[in-house]
Amino acid sequence: MKSHSLLKTVFKEKSVKHIADQMNLSSSTVYKWAESPDTGSASGISNPLDRAQSLILAADDPRLLRWLCEQSGGFFVENSDPSTDNTTSPQTLAPATSKVVKQFADLLSTVAEAAADSKISAKEATNIRREWERLKRAAEGYVKCCEEGNFKRLNRDLKK
């Protein structure tokens, strides 16, 4: 879906006036974001979604996406890149499954060590967060490779 189409859909459910008021912008500016850049009616104003995408691509830094997701109450999990492996011949699933389970065990171990004294320090919380982020990335990559049936790539990705 193109960004302007998504914005049109959102504006049907949440009024442009409400959004403009919340952002301290004019309604006409917000309306322009939903115009297709391919039509003659487009104002030439890039919408915030396209601008955010341009920033993320230019910076090539996943922290920007992580921050946006955290601000929205979610989290960003990067998909593995299928272009890095041209082979699709399935290999054994057991080693990949074992690695994901091990990463989960590492997370549990980190949590258990941190909670042993019934309090968690800032450093321990940082370690827990780091292990959690590793597990989420590994699990998402695991599921994606399972969907593709590409366990050879899965095993390679989990070695990173």
Q: Can you tell me about this structure?
A:
The protein is mainly α. The protein folds into two domains: 3-71, no CATH class; 82-158. The protein has helices at residues 3-13, 16-23, 27-33, 48-59, 62-71, 94-115, 122-148, 151-158. Helix 2 packs across helix 3 (27-33) and helix 6 packs antiparallel against helix 7 (122-148). It is elongated, with a radius of gyration of 21 Å.
**Tally of individual domains:** 2
Query: How would you state the average pLDDT, rounded?
Result: 83
Roughly how many Å is the radius of gyration? Answer: 21 Å
Question: What fraction, in percent, of the residue positions are helical?
Answer: 55-70%
Poorly predicted regions: 84-91
Form type: elongated
Number of strands: 0
Q: End-to-end distance, in Å?
A: 32 Å
Count of alpha and pi helical runs: 8
State the order of secondary-structure elements, H for helix, E for strand: HHHHHHHH
Largest sheet: none
Return the structural class. Answer: mainly alpha
Features:
0% strand; 2 domains; 160 residues; mainly alpha
Chain-wise SSE layout:
Blueprint: H1 3-13, H2 16-23, H3 27-33, H4 48-59, H5 62-71, H6 94-115, H7 122-148, H8 151-158
In short:
The chain is mainly α and 160 residues long. The chain is 66% helix and 0% strand. It folds into two domains: 3-71, no CATH class; 82-158.
